[in-house]
Amino acid sequence: MQILQQTSGRIIQALEHLFQRLGKLVATYPFSVILATIFVSGLCCLGILNIRTESRGNKLWLAPDSNFNKRTDWLNENFKPNTRRNLYAFQAENILTPAALRSMYEVHKAVYNIDVNGQKFDDLCERVSIADIFQANKRRKRETNTSEEDDYVDDIWYGVYDEYEDYNETEIEFTGDRINFKKYSKKNTKTKDDEEAIDSLPVNIYCDLVNTLNSKCKESSILDIWRYKEDLINTATQQEIIDAVNLLERSPWFGFDKDYSRTLGGITRNSTGHIVAAKSELMVFILNFDDENVDISKGGGTEFVFVDETTLAWESKFIEIGLNSSTTTLNVMVDSPRSFSDISDETIFVDSKLMISGYIIMFIYTILMLGKIDFQEMRLYLTIAGLLCIAMGMGIAIGLSAALGYPYTPVNVILPFICLGIGIDDMFVLL
């Protein structure tokens, strides 16, 4: 114990002697020390030229060699994600009413009208191929021929894609019922002969057929029952809505199998098990972004998948529409990939106005505590020098970290407050 005390005393004595000599040096050559300090601080701050930011959540909170990061890097290298899922959740006492349907369509229409640098959802969406070319050919023949034999179209898709409405509505006008329950209330069926016929096609012919297919934006909501037609949606009745969600097993818009109850929430069923009401409905929009035109430095908050600026701007307007679409009878909630980034950005990053206000308050407080409120003993320049030292310390810390290759992360935003608190405390101790 005595040895430890002697060792501790010698260390303290050596430090006291070191700082005494430093104090004499500063007092003897004050201007030289000030210039040397400014020079060293400026030299260290040059490291800021090499600064890089990191806001990817998995890189911030997990070790670089963790299994999650290794597998994520492999997936991004081999199966890079290029789609974003944005959705609205509509809530009402009963969402399966004509009024709620019309309100949802107004929101849907507003989303399709979002314009970012001349690009709309139809230009940015993930697209689904729709095999409607044979359906169009068959309708043309039916318009010019009356015999049953001429109605037949000899193609491998015959009978499978009859349910598709032509995508180019100006060329072929749909003349069917509001909802063809007979056709869409049964699932797609493909026989063994159909599969064999498709497999027997030469590769070049099959690829040519696929390349000629039309496509539609990938989205989901009960509005596709009415094929997103405003006149059909505005004239839909309560009974028609109930019949549609209970009877339809395929989408009249895409022609694919679809269970409309899967996007409904708070479902109420009658004694026979049929849906008679629901409290919520999901409306989903899928975006396709350019993964080759992504700038990671543009990320804010904590990101997991970075996207291009056009997609971020579109999602910003998408969120704005959702937040402004709620009414007294219909509540609209938004879920967008950008939402997490925006919220984390607000939570983590410093509000510059508050930071500046904090420094001004501490500046006034320090002047009052170090001197008196008169022109003779007010320590204005001393306070400025103290705060300047704090700024120089922050510059040195950030510059050296950047020069050593360490990234600037959301955690670093607390640095100005830590430096301010410690710097002011040390100023009072020294003076």
Largest sheet: number of strands, sense, barrel closure: 5 strands, antiparallel
- In round numbers, the mean pLDDT is 79
What is the CA-based Rg, rounded? 34 Å
Helix/strand/pairing category:
alpha+beta
| Number of E-type strands | 9
Count of alpha/pi helices: 18
The parts where pLDDT drops under 50 for at least 5 residues are: 132-176
Relative helix content: 40-55%
Distance between the termini: 35 Å
Q: Tell me the fraction of residues in β-strands, as a range.
A: 5-15%
Overall shape: elongated
Secondary-structure element series? HHHHEHHEHHHHHEEHHEEEEHEHHHH
Structure overview:
- This protein is of the alpha+beta class and 431 residues long.
- 50% of the residues lie in helices and 9% in strands.
- It has 18 helices and nine strands.
- It has helices spanning 2-28, 30-45, 57-61, 67-78, 98-112, 121-124, 133-144, 148-151, 181-184, 192-199, 203-211, 230-234, 238-247, 309-323, 337-348, 352-370, 380-403, 415-430; strands at residues 83-91, 127-130, 214-217, 219-220, 264-265, 268-269, 275-277, 280-288, 331-335.
- Helix 1 packs across helix 2 (30-45) and helix 17 (380-403) packs across helix 18 (415-430).
- The longest helix has 27 residues, at 2-28.
